[in-house]
Design a protein that fits this description.
single chain, alpha+beta, five-stranded antiparallel sheet, four-stranded antiparallel sheet, DUF6226 family protein, DUF6226
Length: 216
């Protein structure tokens, strides 16, 4: 199945899994956020749309036989490094292809409302690929469309084999999805992020790398 067909299948599943989590537009498209919006989230429950979208991906990937959902006996041991927020109810999707990279969904809370933060992870143990939302305050809210797009792009990067995650040490990370790339505290004395990603894709990186082939 090509990427467009896969996304279309997820959209169809999401009509069911997301029936109770409506989308929303940018609440302030023509103005700057108010000062008080930076310290509040009046409706954290709306971010459950992210968990609903993750559920749609799980349904489609398992339904197509590309992966199987496995129980997670030790959620704390699922991640390479302890996440900076508590995550619960993790979902581990193991690809049918043995040498492909597993996909992980971890769920956190905004203001104690469960399943309102989503971390998309990859590998075993897993590394974070995307965390949504970045903040969760009303000031940073620009609608749900961008969040769902980032979620989809992160999952597609894992499933298509485009993902390269390079870990040179705590907080020294490159995440490249093939469409976008980010580098955090990358060592200035080392190779450029672009060169580091190229080396990782060819199996020449001296660092810990999460990368693998497409699931199908």
């Amino acid at each position: 199945m090509d990427q467009q067909e896969l996304r279309a299948a997820v959209d169809e599943a999401f009509a069911d899994t997301g029936a109770d989590t409506p989308a929303w537009a940018d609440p302030h498209p023509d103005r700057e956020p108010l000062d008080e919006e930076y310290s509040r989230c009046l409706d954290p429950g709306k971010y459950r749309i992210l968990a609903a979208r993750a559920d749609a991906w799980t349904r489609v990937l398992c339904g197509l036989g590309l992966a199987a959902a496995e129980p997670v006996g030790d959620p704390a041991g699922l991640w390479r490094r302890t996440p900076d927020l508590p995550l619960s109810e993790p979902v581990l999707l193991r690809p049918a292809r043995a040498d492909a990279v597993p996909l992980v969904f971890g769920f956190g809370a905004i203001d104690d409302v469960p399943r309102t933060v989503l971390v998309v992870g990859a590998g075993e143990p897993a590394v974070p690929v995307e965390r949504l939302p970045d903040c969760g305050c009303d000031a940073c809210d620009d609608g749900s469309a961008g969040l769902l797009e980032r979620l989809d792009d992160a999952v597609v990067a894992v499933v298509t084999g485009a993902l390269v995650h390079i870990d040179a040490g705590p907080d020294q990370v490159i995440v490249d999805t093939g469409e976008s790339s980010s580098a955090s505290n990358w060592p200035p004395s080392g190779a450029s992020p672009e060169a580091a990603v190229e080396a990782a894709r060819y199996g020449r990186s001296p660092h810990r790398v999460v990368s693998g082939p497409a699931w199908d």
